[in-house]
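Input (structure):
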């Protein structure tokens, strides 16, 4: 479903659209992190962002890698149960929507409401697909599934093309597949090195 929220707002001169802010951030910038629970709603225009949480030991746990066109932030529908971090993996360009404005347009404008429902259901289906893989597939199938989901390139804020899969560390892949980093590394080396799909992951 192709739909540009910002283009719709500007084309229809929706009240409050001029308050949408454009901003840039360098690689490695924490856009928000626990215990922060009030955030803008961000639209990723260029680059990549990792979202996740922290273990009791303070280690990052990856939920997802977001790409251009994705939205993230706290809509405050969970009664304070929000403990997510968002960190840039490349230089990024973002649009920032104040949460009350975003809530208003996604509930009061039918075209935007339909688009937003599609985005939510798509994210939900992807999460279910990953959970299914974690619970029912063997190690090789899990890695194949993740590689398929993170194929392709994206453009960062500097205009550089980035391979999406290269932005994930071995630990990120372990988090997304429910396996250990060592198991993921072994599967990639055994199954994909000869086909040219694997890379040397030097990041931990």
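Output (sequence):
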């Amino acid at each position: 479903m192709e739909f540009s929220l910002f283009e719709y707002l500007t084309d229809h001169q929706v009240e409050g659209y001029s308050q949408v802010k454009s901003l840039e951030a360098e690689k490695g910038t924490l856009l928000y992190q626990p215990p922060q629970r009030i955030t803008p709603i961000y639209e990723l225009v260029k680059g990549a962002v990792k979202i996740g949480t922290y273990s009791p030991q303070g280690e990052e746990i990856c939920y997802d890698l977001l790409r251009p066109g994705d939205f993230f932030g706290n809509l405050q529908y969970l009664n304070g149960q929000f403990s997510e971090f968002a960190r840039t993996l490349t230089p990024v360009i973002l649009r920032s929507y104040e949460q009350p404005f975003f809530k208003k347009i996604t509930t009061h404008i039918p075209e935007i409401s339909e688009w937003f429902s599609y985005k939510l259901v798509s994210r939900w289906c992807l999460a279910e697909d990953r959970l299914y893989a974690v619970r029912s597939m063997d190690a090789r199938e899990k890695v194949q599934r993740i590689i398929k989901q993170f194929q392709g390139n994206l453009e960062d804020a500097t205009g550089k093309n980035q391979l999406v899969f290269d932005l994930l560390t071995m630990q990120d892949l372990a988090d997304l597949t429910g396996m250990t980093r060592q198991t993921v590394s072994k599967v990639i080396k055994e199954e994909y090195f000869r086909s040219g799909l694997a890379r040397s992951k030097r990041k931990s």
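Notes: Helices lie at 5-11, 99-108, 110-136, 139-149, 170-177, 181-192. The chain has one domain: 5-192.
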